[in-house]
Amino acid sequence: MINVGVLGASGRMGSAVIQALTTDSDAKLAAAIVRKNSSSYGKSATENEPVHFTSAEELQPDQIDVLIDFSLPEALTENLKLAEQYQLPIVICTTGLNDEQKERLAQAAETVPVLYASNTSIGIALLEQLVGLSSAALPDADIEIFEAHHRHKKDGPSGTAITLGQAAAKGREQRWEEVNDGVRTDGVRSEKGIGFSVMRAADIVGEHQVTLAVDGERVEIGHRVSNRKIFAEGAIRAAKWLKEQAPGLFSLQDTLNLQDILQRLLKR
Ligand SMILES: NC(=O)C1=CN([C@@H]2O[C@H](COP(=O)(O)OP(=O)(O)OC[C@H]3O[C@@H](n4cnc5c(N)ncnc54)[C@H](OP(=O)(O)O)[C@@H]3O)[C@@H](O)[C@H]2O)C=CC1
Ligand SMILES: O=C(O)C1=N[C@H](C(=O)O)C[C@H](O)C1
């Protein structure tokens, strides 16, 4: 049984992780961590078990094996400090990180196991591989990425959309900085640019579509999530894997054998 500390525990994803832990036979909720000024602070985090929303300062580190972070980028530094202070593996699922924050992940990974996943679903991990493969196989195709999320989302393009763009660039051995067109404000695509379009509406959980288009033909690779349980269970699966690792910076791909499967199939 592993004991999980959830950071950002009062949020949409924090609540989904807490819910998923109630039915997991190998992992349980050990701490539901929020800001001290959170409206949830001190309230009960679960219906039947005696876990209350608590602050990082009150944490009992000996009762925790691994942390899962679904807070916001503003909390990243403090959350990594917590992992370092108590030598706890940490799965970071927050998106919208800037370059400095990404460097901070690598720095923390020198002393604790850190897994960063902009999307914890296996479907998106698979899409990443398929996008890399498609982009290499169709070197002249124009690549565009569409993503749709709920009206409350605070960052865009989504972390997943950026990860998929990076997979496409990697497939063509291109530097991401040179091909990232972002969300075009003038509507004009650069020659090798990868562009993004973003929809924010109602309760959409998470949708991504990568289009590779040549004149007269179009490949579309897409993924839709309709329940946050998918992300929650993926994060818990990653946490179980990370708990067994030495310090280092990992991705969801490290926990799966998708590359091996693809390589085996491509050799046939
Ligand atoms: N990797 C993945 O698969 C997925 C990643 N995400 C990402 O996870 C993150 C959270 O998403 P979601 O649950 O929808 O967001 P919410 O806004 O619902 O939750 C955010 C949580 O962070 C807490 N929080 C806000 N500001 C701070 C702060 N400055 N310091 C500490 N805690 C803070 C809030 O707590 P309170 O206000 O109570 O203090 C709340 O619990 C986003 O970055 C999102 O993009 C989302 C889905 C899947
Ligand atoms: O904020 C969300 O909700 C989501 N964020 C992640 C992202 O930015 O990619 C993953 C998921 O699609 C949901």
UniProtKB/TrEMBL annotation:
Chain positions recorded as NADP(+) binding sites: 36
Pathway named in the protein's UniProt entry: Amino-acid biosynthesis; L-lysine biosynthesis via DAP pathway; (S)-tetrahydrodipicolinate from L-aspartate: step 4/4
Binding locations of (S)-2,3,4,5-tetrahydrodipicolinate: 150, 159-160
Dihydrodipicolinate reductase N-terminal domain residues: 2-119
Domain Dihydrodipicolinate reductase C-terminal: 123-256
InterPro entries in the cross-refs: DapB_C (IPR022663), DapB_N (IPR000846), DapB_N_CS (IPR022664), DHDPR_bac (IPR023940), NAD(P)-bd_dom_sf (IPR036291)
Recorded GO CC terms: cytoplasm
Listed GO biological process terms: diaminopimelate biosynthetic process; lysine biosynthetic process via diaminopimelate
Catalytic activities: (S)-2,3,4,5-tetrahydrodipicolinate + NADP(+) + H2O = (2S,4S)-4-hydroxy-2,3,4,5-tetrahydrodipicolinate + NADPH + H(+); (S)-2,3,4,5-tetrahydrodipicolinate + NAD(+) + H2O = (2S,4S)-4-hydroxy-2,3,4,5-tetrahydrodipicolinate + NADH + H(+)
Coiled coil regions, renumbered to chain: none
Keywords associated with the record: Amino-acid biosynthesis, Cytoplasm, Diaminopimelate biosynthesis, Lysine biosynthesis, NAD, NADP, Oxidoreductase
A Pfam short name: DapB_C
Subcellular location, record wording: Cytoplasm
GO MF, one annotated term: 4-hydroxy-tetrahydrodipicolinate reductase
Top enzyme class: oxidoreductase
Catalytic activity, EC: 1.17.1.8
Residues at the active site: 149 (proton donor/acceptor), 153 (proton donor)
Binding residues annotated for NAD(+), in chain numbering: 8-13, 93-95, 117-120
Role played: Catalyzes the conversion of 4-hydroxy-tetrahydrodipicolinate (HTPA) to tetrahydrodipicolinate.
Protein family per UniProt: Belongs to the DapB family.
Subunit-level organization: Homotetramer.
Protein name per UniProt: 4-hydroxy-tetrahydrodipicolinate reductase
Gene for this chain: dapB
